[in-house]
Amino acid sequence: MAKQNVAEQFVDILVRAGVKRMYGVVGDSLNPVVDAVRRTPGIDWVHVRHEEAAAFAAGAEAQITGQLTACAGSCGPGNLHLINGLYDAHRSMAPVLALASHIPSSEIGLGYFQETHPELLFRECSHYCEMISSPEQMPRLLQTAIQNAIGQGGVSVVTMPGDIADKPAPEKSIETALVTERPSVRPGESEIAKLVDMIDKAEKVTLFCGSGTAGAHDEVMEFAEKLKAPVGHALRGKEWIEYDNPFDVGMSGLLGYGAAYEATHECDLLILLGTDFPYNAFLPDDVKIAQVDVRPQHLGRRSKLDLAIWGDVRETLRCLTPLVRTKTSRRFLDRMLKKHAEALEGVVSAYTRKVDKHVPIHPEYVASVLDDLADDDAVFTVDTGMNNVWAARYITPNGKRRVIGSFSHGSMANALPQAIGAQLIERDRQVVSMSGDGGFSMLMGDFLTLVQLDLPVKVVLFNNSSLGMVELEMLVGGLPAFGTSNHNPDFAAVARACGAYGVRVEKPKQLAGALKDAFKHDGPALVDVVTDPNALSIPPKIKAEMVTGFALSASKMVLDGGVGKMLQMARSNLRNIPRP
């Protein structure tokens, strides 16, 4: 058997850690690793057109599977292109191993062609960032990087000079066992006892849920039933907690709707479950707050806590629910459910009024029809900006669908490359990229990746020829819109020129048929929908301190926007309220 080089050993360790794909763009210093991938069973090289797309794709795959993924960039500019996607993966707690290939080791520090210092540059967007300087060091360093990415949830970056990758691997390298899954974290007995006491003393309890409730839907519902507690959620908690939820009062925050804001402010005790909700202006400062989070560094960094619980949500609720007293009064819950339904009734008219005739097309209408026609287990990737609003308000979760976006990092151009990673996991599963024209055009080159790999991603392009969210920000600041308009081509014609299916929709009556045809197409497809640039959105509760850095407007041109099937769900939940 031929002796391994370091690159081959590197790739073997990734395969043992469960990595199935490495996303990237080939380049000189990276060539030994790419060639090792070519010759190693169980792992594929995914050739994209931009390394930023590689990192986004790897992050999306990791978010959906929960497993370690990998991306790579060649020395200097190649690996620097990874950084935005890695920031997004890290802030989304997606386990990603990034290889930042480096210049020849003998030239480091001497101003060589394409020289950078990746071990410094990537430090802020990773849990672990180190350079391999010798073959003997590589196995243990890579093992440490893998265990940081999986164990802490986020990015690890390994820098490796191309000449080191090409050297012979050590004769006797130890194959150490690798961590590939995270454990459950159970809170301490004293913390559980304190929380039980707080809950039993509180008359009105509200639960506010984030992405940390993934896998804990049944436990949250059982807990809410016992406490007769309204259940609100942040955007990243929507897909895990909103469906089959008779206690639902909507979403708080800048994209919020319904009665979640009131429920969190009018309770005696607010329990934050698995959320690092960033907008503290939407959290109360005059009620007791307890927070449960598997990451102790998140506890109390958004609001002043009366009790911090270190544990994952599912395990914590399994400990907690049997110990708390069952509350008998539904008065607070029923009042919040009624407020929720009333709030949704008040905004849904903007969506229902003559939308089938409105030109340019209401984006709310596009999102609603998309929600109706998409598969029950579809994966939606969502561009930052107004598409976040439409996805939050119209895409209906059901426990099988997934919604992935740059919800923590807030980057443009995330949806298309994230769709690449989502589709490669399972080619037969429907993947829909809800793209804005600004985001799509920023990384439009990777539409060619869909064609080259024959990935059946369906791009639904909300084309309002503007940076809509930025226009809102300017309105908030009393500024005229400037530099926000896009002179766009016929994107459907561009898609066809690339070898994909493309159709342009300018009238509402064309929309459903165009989406159905695109979904039936066996391959990549783009539906270019010309939407109304004046269809904007505001959250249900506005205070002056909430507007900083976000798109809010007092202008009368702003629509509240509809909320899709959530109104129907809210009405259904009202049936749970006992009648006198």
TrEMBL record:
EC number: 1.2.5.1
GO molecular function: magnesium ion binding; pyruvate dehydrogenase (quinone) activity; thiamine pyrophosphate binding
Record-annotated Thiamine pyrophosphate enzyme N-terminal TPP-binding domain positions: 5-115
InterPro entries hit by this protein: DHS-like_NAD/FAD-binding_dom (IPR029035), POXB-like (IPR047211), THDP-binding (IPR029061), Thiamin_PyroP_enz_cen_dom (IPR012000), Thiamin_PyroP_enz_TPP-bd_dom (IPR012001), TPP_enzyme_TPP-bd (IPR011766), TPP_POXB-like (IPR047212), TPP_PYR_POXB-like (IPR047210)
Keywords, comma-separated and alphabetical: Oxidoreductase, Pyruvate, Thiamine pyrophosphate
Keyword Acyltransferase tagged: no
Top-level class of the enzyme under EC nomenclature: oxidoreductase
Annotated Thiamine pyrophosphate enzyme central domain residues: 192-320
Start and end residues of each Thiamine pyrophosphate enzyme TPP-binding domain: 383-529
Pfam families: TPP_enzyme_C, TPP_enzyme_M, TPP_enzyme_N
Family named by the database record: Belongs to the TPP enzyme family.
Protein name: Pyruvate dehydrogenase
Organism this protein belongs to: Streptomyces griseus
Gene, per the UniProt record: poxB_1
